[in-house]
Design brief:
The protein is α+β, with helices and mostly antiparallel strands. It has a domain of 222 residues: FAD/NAD(P)-binding domain (3-Layer(bba) Sandwich). Helix content is 36%, strand content 29%. The chain has ten helices and 20 strands. The strands form four sheets. It has an eight-stranded mixed beta sheet with strand order 6-5-14-15-16-13-17-20, with helices on both faces. Strands 8-2-1-12-19-18 form a six-stranded mixed beta sheet. The longest helix is centred in the C-terminal third of the chain and has 31 residues.
Length: 382
């Protein structure tokens, strides 16, 4: 290994994945997390085949599949439940299913246990106060008063990353897309055996199965001005935004009886120019490439980052060359996901009720080939 002591900033999916892989190779790894504990914000998360392959590298695939719900792809409907087109996934193969979804809490629990087994040390409620790259090591001072040297500092600190500016400089803050997503965990309807998507009037709803008993409902909506909604109003706001939907989504809307289990997230985007490192500092995952969730690839891209970075550190002979090789393996693939997700978001949000019949006809004709092209690329080794 090119490094023997590493600090990971952020105990999310990518950070825990990288820390575990490094720890399994005998690297001394510390993780600091700004949150006060290991609790998780969010509901469920779909893991496409490429993400599952990364989880296999970490050694947790079987457990993820055991607690999750494997499924075959996406089926598209209009907002009254009329079928538009079915798009079975081209992801997966003999090694992994096309998709497997599970609760975020379960995934976090599995990754935390793997990190613990790899002798990773995690400190909560801790942030970077100051750091100095001295060329052959990095001196880091943290908010808990600790001061130590590391061979590499990896920023997996998410959309609001503090590491991003240290690596890339100012001017790379997330840009609000104009849209937000609402999510709510609900009992799984027997009809929900894969991802079901419903195109509405400048909105898009969907359901994804998480287990035999649960699924999550989501809704993407315009949110002009990036409002800060009161969580106490989430039930009312989500119900209002689902007006006009009938069929399954209408039934789920009518079952909402308050704000409990509803999560709202504004959709913002970042794509840092290459490279994502400055010397011995590097940012990965959402800190480097935050995208719309429309390909359900956010966690997958972060986990792939972790696997590829550790692979380059494991087999490289020079740190600078390893960082350059990492960028060469990741940038084009991440850009594909970022750009495709953005195009899907803006295209769907432009469809109003009047244009919906024509849009459905176009989706029926074009979506299978468009989906196949993206999935064929993402099914390639990363």
């Amino acid at each position: 290994m090119l490094v023997q002591k590493v600090l990971v900033v952020g105990a999310g999916i990518g950070g825990l994945g990288a820390a575990t892989l490094l720890g399994q190779r005998g690297v001394q790894v510390e993780v600091i997390e700004a949150r006060p504990d290991s609790s998780v914000l969010g509901v469920g998360i779909n893991q496409p085949a490429n993400s599952l392959r990364a989880l296999a590298k970490i050694g947790v695939l079987d457990e993820c599949l055991r607690v999750g719900y494997s499924h075959s792809g996406n089926t598209f409907f209009d907002w009254h439940g009329n079928l538009i087109v079915d798009c079975p996934s081209r992801l997966g193969g003999d090694d992994v299913p096309a998709n497997s979804a599970l609760s975020r809490a379960e995934l976090k629990r599995i990754l935390l246990r793997a990190a613990e087994s790899a002798q990773v040390k995690i400190r909560y409620g801790v942030t970077v106060e100051d750091l100095t790259d001295e060329g052959d090591r990095v001196l880091v001072r943290t908010s808990d008063g600790a001061r130590d040297f590391y061979d590499l500092v990896i920023g997996f600190d998410g959309a609001k990353s503090t590491m991003r500016a240290l690596v890339a400089g100012p001017g790379h803050d997330p840009v609000f897309s104009g849209y937000g997503v609402w999510r709510k965990t609900m009992p799984r309807d027997p009809s929900v055996t894969n991802t079901l998507l419903f195109q509405g009037d400048r909105t898009k709803a969907g359901v994804i199965p998480l287990s035999e008993d649960s699924m999550y409902l989501f809704l993407v909506t315009p949110e002009p001005g990036n409002p800060r909604h009161d969580p106490a109003d989430f039930g009312t706001l989500l119900t209002e935004r689902l007006a006009g939907y009938t069929g399954l989504i209408g039934e789920l809307r009518d079952a909402i009886d308050g704000p409990d289990d509803i999560v709202y997230s504004p959709l913002s985007e970042v794509l840092l120019p290459a490279p994502w490192n400055r010397g011995r500092l590097i940012v990965l995952g959402d800190a480097a490439h935050l995208c719309a969730p429309h390909l359900t690839q956010g966690a997958g891209m972060a986990l792939e980052d972790a696997v590829v970075l550790v692979d380059e550190l494991d087999h490289g002979t020079d740190l600078d060359q390893a960082m350059a090789a990492f960028t060469g393996r990741r940038y084009e693939r991440v850009t594909l996901v970022h750009d495709a997700s953005h195009a899907i978001l803006t295209g769907e949000m432009a469809i109003d009720a009047e244009a919906l019949p024509a849009a459905c006809a176009h989706m029926r004709e074009a979506l299978p080939a468009q989906t196949a092209a993206v999935e064929d690329a993402l099914n390639q080794p990363f």
